[in-house]
């Protein structure tokens, strides 16, 4: 009888545990995570995660949305901006994402989007990969849990930018810098100059109420070393500037806006629609969004930047009245199903003033770093074309203010 | 012996199941979800989820960050914009959130942030509450899974705006409209006019590449009925405009930016820092951000709007040279620990031009709806003050263009 009772109790226990497993699995959603989808479809059904993206074609915004699957984007830094950037690209169905970070998730990160308290203690790239793969299993993920600025890691990092594309051996299509320090920015800059790799810089101020994105096309626009921040120019170790018990402020709003602007410009760059901004800042206190273009510095410390400049000038001079880039004008959909429409009509003149190359430094902008005065015997050859101005021109303008 | 074997097998099974439960619980993070925190602290430790927010005080941006716990915000519509809005407010540690939606999560929503595939089929408010409570258990949540536009629900909805504040019987502090149709916007407008309740309108265009936010202070700025979209003015049932097999496009980028701008302005409004924008639009193709202020329409169809206008004029005329609102100027932190700083210096003149009341309609903006011509015997009394212009003034300006 004792055995039978013990057996019965065990059976009840098994039943209880099986129910708990079932309930936990349901909560985890393991039985619901969606299957891979072979081809992006425009079909308008509740079960199609791509219907709202493919609708961009019918709306006349993007010609070729499905080509997004061919692209690889490297995101360096998976913090407040980088994690949201990676999530947006994942939900957009990017072909491949390569993530770099060496930090761990902390509760102190919970004031920004993406990570959740139960992930505290996990590595950021591993936690991010787990969440992102659940959101969209169609994306290919590659993650690296290391600091890109050490000698060995830097070589590996550069190798992945050069060879980590959709087909191994192919370069990535774009690098997005979402790091929070200058040393890492300089490492990315060095790698991208050597590879002549286009990338976006991004940043948020330590008081949390402003941020910016900057498109760096080596040779065509200023690189990070062309007009370095003071801390870089003076070779200051930025770690010595940190103080015990003091941290930078941050807001999910500012970081969400910067990530949104960064990924929006990434989509415009990859899928060739709209106008890609070279530099766009966000001042949250005033809702002010200055924009400008910075030409490269002929005297840039980075020899690869100077090399890219020469190559860019050569390519440009060989072009015979050909437009540099085919950009698609803002189109208003002829199918206006819901009558929802933003009341904006911009003339070409206004749009030039709002973004792209501008004839002078945008209002409210100042240059933080001034170059040493040139000696007279140095040859001066301003790298400038069209309505863009060289850094020297800008400096001269600044002095007159 | 048979019994002993059966018992042994059952014991093994119990052990296996217990291990599975342990592993699933770990994945779910139930054993790691953070505990409630009694008081917001500025302490800089990895375990403090508020350190980066409280740092806004040391940076000179916000005087009183911890008062955010006293505020209640109602979010109507928990879709692409509303869900991210709710998440940002939750991570910022808002006192109470009231969510309204009657929709279910679908895989077709996965191109926007927040919801995950395993939540497909759940009600949006329930799925959102579960995720948000895990992210920040200090926030008080109240969710309503209904359509606010039906007669009964509308009364209940209005009751919750009137009484749902931190202390029952107190009004909410702000209402955020994140809905995707005009009928719901008009319902919110009607309720807020009757309650003289300040709210923010928000929206994203059906081609996914523009959006806006609009602050509506009944009596002070134009309400949604003051200059209604054509579909509202002509009493068109917008459902008849939808077509089989066609859906609006949407992007996580545009919706993330709009949610970011919406919550940023919500924080500025509640915590009294920076300048709150009355109307701010985002044109994603050009990275163009027009801003303007719209005064109320004397002939607004909504009698409660007209009543609020009279009350606002009365209050304003009783003020003797007192500033309407104390806004804090942009301050640059004196403690610049990392040397990270956005290179923006704005004069008062520039800041006026960039946001807040403007002397004329911003470049690139047009008015979508024109009022019927007035009959001569109607008294005309333009509601306008300071450098703001009435809708009539704006219309007159438009005609000259």
TrEMBL record, chains A, B:
<keyword id="KW-0862">Zinc</keyword>
<feature type="coiled-coil region">
    <location>
        <begin position="7"/>
        <end position="34"/>
    </location>
</feature>
<protein>
    <recommendedName>
        <fullName>Ubiquitin-like modifier-activating enzyme 5</fullName>
    </recommendedName>
</protein>
<comment type="similarity">
    <text>Belongs to the ubiquitin-activating E1 family. UBA5 subfamily.</text>
</comment>
<dbReference type="GO" id="GO:0005829">
    <property type="term" value="C:cytosol"/>
</dbReference>
<dbReference type="GO" id="GO:0046872">
    <property type="term" value="F:metal ion binding"/>
</dbReference>
<dbReference type="GO" id="GO:0071569">
    <property type="term" value="P:protein ufmylation"/>
</dbReference>
<keyword id="KW-0833">Ubl conjugation pathway</keyword>
<dbReference type="Pfam" id="PF00899">
    <property type="entry name" value="ThiF"/>
</dbReference>
<keyword id="KW-0175">Coiled coil</keyword>
<keyword id="KW-0067">ATP-binding</keyword>
<dbReference type="InterPro" id="IPR035985">
    <property type="entry name" value="Ubiquitin-activating_enz"/>
</dbReference>
<dbReference type="GO" id="GO:0071566">
    <property type="term" value="F:UFM1 activating enzyme activity"/>
</dbReference>
<dbReference type="GO" id="GO:0005737">
    <property type="term" value="C:cytoplasm"/>
</dbReference>
<keyword id="KW-0479">Metal-binding</keyword>
<dbReference type="GO" id="GO:0005524">
    <property type="term" value="F:ATP binding"/>
</dbReference>
<dbReference type="InterPro" id="IPR029752">
    <property type="entry name" value="D-isomer_DH_CS1"/>
</dbReference>
<keyword id="KW-0547">Nucleotide-binding</keyword>
<dbReference type="InterPro" id="IPR000594">
    <property type="entry name" value="ThiF_NAD_FAD-bd"/>
</dbReference>
<feature type="domain" description="THIF-type NAD/FAD binding fold">
    <location>
        <begin position="50"/>
        <end position="300"/>
    </location>
</feature>
<dbReference type="InterPro" id="IPR045886">
    <property type="entry name" value="ThiF/MoeB/HesA"/>
</dbReference>
